[in-house]
Amino acid sequence: MSDHGKRQSDSGGPIPGIGVRNSVISRLSLVVAAIAACAIAVWVGPLGTSGRASGAAPLAAPQPVAHNEPLETYEGVITDSHCGAKHASAIGESAADCTRKCVHAGEQFILVDRDSTYMLEGEMQLLKKMAGQRVRVIGTLNGKTITVNHVAEV
């Protein structure tokens, strides 16, 4: 070996291909290291700071988010998004029974008040009980949807 640390042949010259081979091995090592680093980042990334994967179930129940929207009062008839204010009298059912049947089939509860119609969400058991009746609904409005906090017969 010479002072520069390069391999030499018995004749004193550099060994053919050794410098190229070391260069290829160095580049290949860098590529493998980069792939390994990416794989580790993908595997560890979802763990975040909580120590669990993002798809894992939370350790404690989530706390309800405080809403700053004020509670408002609305009056109208609880019906469903299929029939609206006009239930078919030919089927021989009350508005309440028709509403419950339509909601059971996949329609949404709505509140109809003159020219206004609002989708209702939350308090499903209470909405089922009050279906077809004129009511006072207390809740928060988001667009055309009322999140129901309370329902009372008018």
According to CATH, what is the topology of the largest domain? Answer: OB fold (Dihydrolipoamide Acetyltransferase, E2P)
The count of strands amounts to: 5
Low-confidence stretches: 47-66
Computed CA radius of gyration, to the nearest angstrom: 35 Å
The main pleated sheet reads as: 5 strands, mixed, barrel
Total of DSSP H or I helical runs spanning 4+ residues: 3
Under CATH at level 1, the class of the largest domain stands as: Mainly Beta
**Spatial strand sequence of the major β-sheet:** 1-2-3-5-4
Number of domains: 2
Structural class: alpha+beta
Any guess at the CATH architecture of the largest domain?
Beta Barrel
**Termini separation:** 102 Å
**Rounded mean pLDDT score:** 76
Provide the β-strand percentage band: 15-25%
Overview of the structural elements:
With 154 residues, the chain is of the alpha+beta class. It has 2 domains: 56 residues, no CATH class; 82 residues, Beta Barrel (OB fold (Dihydrolipoamide Acetyltransferase, E2P)), CATH 2.40.50.430. Helices cover 28% and strands 25% of the residues. It has 3 helices and 5 strands; from the N terminus they run αβαββαββ. The chain has a 5-stranded mixed barrel. The longest helix is centred in the N-terminal third of the chain and has 27 residues. The termini are far apart. About 13% of the residues have low confidence.
Question: What key attributes describe this structure?
Answer:
154 residues; alpha+beta; OB fold (Dihydrolipoamide Acetyltransferase, E2P); 3 helices; 25% strand
